[in-house]
Fold each of these.
Amino acid sequence: MTSSNISLTQFLIEEQRAGRVNPQLRLLIEVVSRACKRISIAVGKGALGGVLGDAGEGGQANINVQGEAQKKLDVLSNEILLEANAWGGHLAGLASEEMDTSQPIPDKYPRGNYLLLFDPLDGSSNIDVNVSVGTIFSVLRCPEGVTSPTDADFLQPGTAQVAAGYCVYGPQTTLVLTVGHGTHAFTLDREAGSFVLTTRGMTIPQETREFAVNMSNQRFWEAPMQAYIGDLLKGSEGPRGKDFNMRWIASMVADVHRILTRGGLFSYPLDSKCAAKGGKLRLMYEANPMSFLVEQAGGAASTGRMRMLEVTPSGLHMRVPVFMGSKAEVDAAVGYHQAHD
Ligand code: AHG
Ligand code: MN
Ligand code: MN
Ligand code: MN
């Protein structure tokens, strides 16, 4: 990574001068980045801050709309993002993995032109074991003439995103951002309290020898996925003619960050356990923002059967199968699906 003296604030002002962001979108990104700093501080305190473990009272875990037990940090991160974004005048509404429905901005505050969607804390299963977690966000335009958006106003394909990003809380806290002109990484200078541009224009190598998937689900996968991974595992003696390495952190943010940094293929495919829901990962909070970032870095993202960013959302919490990363490898995975369908 090449370091610079360019803060996120300076970067966004330069993007505004170049006509790539307007003042409202710039404020939105600044506000989200400030919320991520607060989440980073909470994550960093761990047991000392009393933030580990499940949310809920009397030994009874809170179950969110996804059917998952909420962690304390899921709830806290959601509250930090809601509170930070309520009053700035840049948003018309918000939607979150942790909330049943979308929320319009309260009447007491001015409303802006954008809709914000987020996965406040990604990789919840890793919080208590001190492994990287993250925040993912996606920005859409509020439809013309709508002042109090409902869920239906959020149901836009990923191609309609005007910005997307994630913040990974790992050994370093890194914010990765796109406004549709490349994918850029900013590392948090913890002493100064500001994000500093560390990679302008991340690029994913087209070819790879590395894949990320939860192999324990292998027997539940569809036939094309069985065939695809089966051939990867045959290595240099199989049809792919090369040996592959595997990594699985189980935090999408951390797995995709590795792929944006050095290439690879990330997949959470359809399996018979999640088939009724359409997949495991959520289109609006996980797949779409990550696909936008990956495409902007020269990679590809697909459901296995179509380009992710062209999926028409059927609901706020819609789930999809996911393949993303190095373009040649995503194309190979899609090829196995085409051959089987
Ligand atoms: P979240 O913590 O926001 O609910 O998302 C968890 C997701 C994703 O981060 C990760 O890739 C996947 O779940 C891990 O799934 P497994 O537990 O099946 O490995
Ligand atoms: Mn969750
Ligand atoms: Mn997630
Ligand atoms: Mn989450």
Amino acid sequence: QVERLSSLPAQPQPVGQFPRIRMRRNRADDWSRRMVAERRLGPQDFILPVFVKEGGAKREAIDAMPGVSRHTIPSLIELAEQAAELGIPALALFPVVPRELKSGQAEEAYREDNLCNRAVAALKKAVPEIGLICDVALDPYTDHGHDGVMEDGVILNDETIDVLIRQALGQAAAGVDVVAPSDMMDGRIGRIRDALDAAGFQHVRIMSYAAKYASGFYGPFREAVGSKSALGRGDKRTYQMDPANGDEALRECALDVAEGADMLMVKPGLPYLDIVHRVKQEFKMPVFAYQVSGEYAMMKAAAANGWLDNDRVVLESLMCFKRAGADGVLTYSAIEAAQLLRS
Ligand code: PBG
């Protein structure tokens, strides 16, 4: 029967009825578009990166990141409450370290009572339902602005890891839920995992900045945390990845998976969606993308000029991460996006 049907000669299309398959039918109504949507965006998809500074004075605006502030610990607690109420699962915390505490060896990074650790402890106490992620990297703490310790202009890999371990242990002791090594030293995931486990922090998760590129899109962030002037005209190409490379990102991820990473991250975001997609396809584990400061600044600058519709591009860009395969996005737009989705 089936065979006979398929061997029938093709029927000529009656005039006026071409084409038979009309993709636009499913798009014709809002209910229908919702019914066939392949992805849904929600507040659970967002991680909010936040900046915290010393002092009781008020929060300060960051010029290149309209809508984003350097918070004091009390104002950060208010923000965390708002994020939690909106259903945002976690914050990623970045300290703004006073210049006088920066040094060549980044000792401040592992001081038990440093700003980052105090903020973690205060947040955990005040808003226990929100997850906390801390960057593990030395750039906020070094006087040269690099992510590692430097000797004769060279960033030392293994010596840096010794310091990163102490930093991660301090964060774990303060109560952080996830440590996120963003330094790109070789072998740090395994050594941090072992050190956490040996110290009784088996429950602390590792989100690895596994594929982190040497990108020009970090500019506003470096200004926000004050590592830009320290770094000067230096760049991070001897440890962060070359934007030309994709296969190399898979090798980076494979190593971090083997060393015990619980979650992988790709950074920056939109220009690297091909990497997000490949990493998700290859490893089938939680993959996050970081829509970085420069991406945020581009959208805000164009919107401020009336060249883009802010609300549309914010939600569209976040949806694109999900379509590419990301399980979540670190985004400075987390609060506004969650509010837009609610309204
Ligand atoms: C530091 C770090 C950077 C960012 C997150 N962690 C900057 C850098 O690598 O120079 C950038 C985030 C952003 O641009 O939003 N290790």
Amino acid sequence: MPRQKTLKMQAPLIAADVESSRLEIVVADITSLSVDAIVNAANVTLLGGGGVDGAIHRAGGPQLLGECKTLGGCETGSAKITRGYRLSALNVIHAVGPVWHGGARNEDDLLASCYRTALALARERKLRSVAFPAISTGVYGFPADRAARIAVGTVLSEIRAQPRGIERVIFCCFSDESADHHAVAFWECGLA
Ligand code: ADP
């Protein structure tokens, strides 16, 4: 049996079952979640930054940065995995979202690719619960409604394409507004 942590968090605002997985929307600080992996909205250096990246590194401690230093950075649209160190989460999947430039620089595909790569890494490691922040919607300026549609749509099609393995995907929103965007995306995808 793979090592797994029990989820301890507030009840989700919305939950939907897809195949053998549960997709949830919660409003929380992602560093507080006890899951197999939290996803970080990192930058190409993987050496920490502001926003959720800063919060994850503060909570994970210096060993997290130490492991990140060994990874040689990461391309936009891709992701790399480390252990979680002082975090409640067992692992951190560092995904590099695109900076929003108006939509003509392949931003949608690059954002979808972050979610796909993160889920592929989770599957490879046999992780069962993964929590995503709203990648690229902070400093990187991606429109939050558009990003939520991409996040939910991509996760949904990945779960449908490979229905076994990941049991729980959490969209960890940092504001009610962000949760509303994800709720609309659930509804548009027929999940709510
Ligand atoms: P990016 O550079 O990819 O835009 P940011 O960290 O600036 O990354 O923002 C990404 C999203 O993460 C934003 O919606 C922001 O509100 C959210 N966020 C910031 N801190 C946290 C946190 N501790 N837990 C969950 N989400 C967070």
